[in-house]
Each structure stands twice: as structure tokens, then as C-alpha cells.
Design brief:
The protein has 161 residues and is mainly alpha-helical. The protein has a single domain, classed as Up-down Bundle (Four Helix Bundle (Hemerythrin (Met), subunit A)). The protein is built from seven helices and two strands, in the order ααααααββα. Helix 1 packs antiparallel against helix 3, helix 1 runs parallel beside helix 7 and helix 3 runs parallel beside helix 6. It is globular and about 45 Å long. The termini are close together.
């Protein structure tokens, strides 16, 4: 349920969680082969969307806000096709579990900081947690649209709810 009357943080978290849930809805119910099937000229697949968003969650929350030794924020060029490439063992079940774990870690890390908390970001200079939330809502929602089209092409299922 989207927070309609909550404070700014509650609204940001609710919108991001809504889109995270839709991503999982688009993945679940597909066979592994369906999730990995290319239906458009690019390498974009439903499984690839989830794999990419798993990397994006780790990249924007833990790696920026609470990096562990050796963690580096990846640029788009550095993450490249690897975050979209489906490999043996990338099953629907494993991809969903990995994404859920990444989202849980993101929530845990973000909860430790105020929205105004500023961190260095290699490409942009500095960003605050508020900016990260807005960016992640945009990024996740954009890829939900991709997954929605791919799911419709696979079995006709559409919609966010």
C-alpha cells in the first residue's frame, strides 16, 4: 500500500517498494526458460531485468552509503552487459531470492541515514539519500515497464497489481 499521508521518507520508501514488488510479480510464474527468453532485439529479458536491478540495489545503497572494504560504486560502463547476462543457475527462484535479499539490504542500510545524508558519487560528485531514493524509483519503474512488456509478450499477463 502506498503511503498517501506519510512523511517524505515514508512516501519515497513506499513507492520504491511498490515497484520492487511489481518487478517480482513480473518474474514469478514464469518458467526459467520463459524468464530468460529474448523477445526483443536487445539482450533484455525478464530474468535480466531482475538480475540488473539486483546489482543496481547493491550499487546505490550499500556500496555508496555503507561500503565494505573493496566495495566500489560501478558506473554504467563498468556494470555493462554483465548485469543483464543470464548464466546457468540463474533460475527464477534464485533471481527472486537474490533480488529480495538485495532490497532487504538496501532497506537496512538506508534506514541508518537521514534523507539529507550526503555521500560521494564517482560520476555526479555528491548525492544525498533523498536523491538516491528518487533515482531508484525512476530506475526500477523504468525497468518494470520493460518487464511488463516482456511478460505480456510471453503469456499475455499485464498490469502492476
Amino acid at each position: 500500500m502506498i503511503a498517501r499521508t506519510g512523511d517524505e521518507r515514508a512516501v519515497l520508501e513506499a513507492f520504491l517498494d511498490l515497484h520492487r514488488g511489481v518487478v517480482l510479480k513480473k518474474l514469478r510464474g514464469l518458467a526459467d526458460s520463459e524468464a530468460a527468453r529474448r523477445l526483443v532485439p536487445s539482450d533484455t529479458t525478464v530474468a535480466g531485468v531482475v538480475k540488473h536491478l539486483t546489482m543496481v540495489e547493491a550499487n546505490w545503497f550499500p556500496r555508496l552509503l555503507a561500503p565494505r572494504p573493496g566495495d566500489e560504486h560501478l558506473t554504467s560502463a563498468e556494470s555493462g552487459r554483465a548485469s543483464w547476462t543470464i548464466r546457468a543457475g540463474d533460475t527464477v527462484e534464485r533471481l527472486a531470492a537474490g533480488y529480495e535479499a538485495a532490497c532487504a539490504r538496501s532497506r537496512e542500510v538506508a534506514a541508518r541515514f537521514p534523507l539529507d545524508h550526503v555521500v560521494p558519487q564517482p560520476q555526479l560528485g555528491e548525492v544525498n539519500l533523498r536523491w538516491i531514493y528518487v533515482h531508484m524509483i525512476e530506475e526500477t519503474a523504468r525497468h518494470v515497464g520493460h518487464a511488463d512488456i516482456l511478460r505480456e509478450l510471453t503469456d499475455g499477463q499485464t498490469g502492476a497489481v
